Amino acid sequence: IQELQLCRPRYDELISLQLRNIFVLISRAIMSAKKFSSTSEKEVAFAMHYFRKNYNTEISIEEYSESRELSNCWFIQCFKEITGSSPQQYILKLRISNAQSLLENTEYTITEIANMVGYTNSLYFSRLFHKYIGMSPKEYRKVKLKENLRE
User: What is the value of pTM for the model shown?
Assistant: First the structure.
């Protein structure tokens, strides 16, 4: 837009090159999206279902991919390309999200919630929770309790 407004010498060539660059980037994105077959999409969908169902147990990504007769590297790459996060990050998000729900809607202790979402060490759980949410589970519960009282 700036090139169009300023009309500097050879601006038209520069604009056409920038437009071509945009088309190349779009083409690359389309090609990378197509490199995954419906089989890989089905595998990732199956994995997501499995992870949602079993997020609160210990899940080894390597053992999971072996059980599905998949290459571990291929599975992780496909999962990340399709979902935008690694399988381990996906499981972590599920655990934290469910912990948030339990903190908001129940009176379970932090230790009980940590166990429910798959962490045997409540201190480790609290550190992870703080890292991803920005506050400890205890602080999170207080904030949500105050928000609910205002409503």
Answer: 0.72
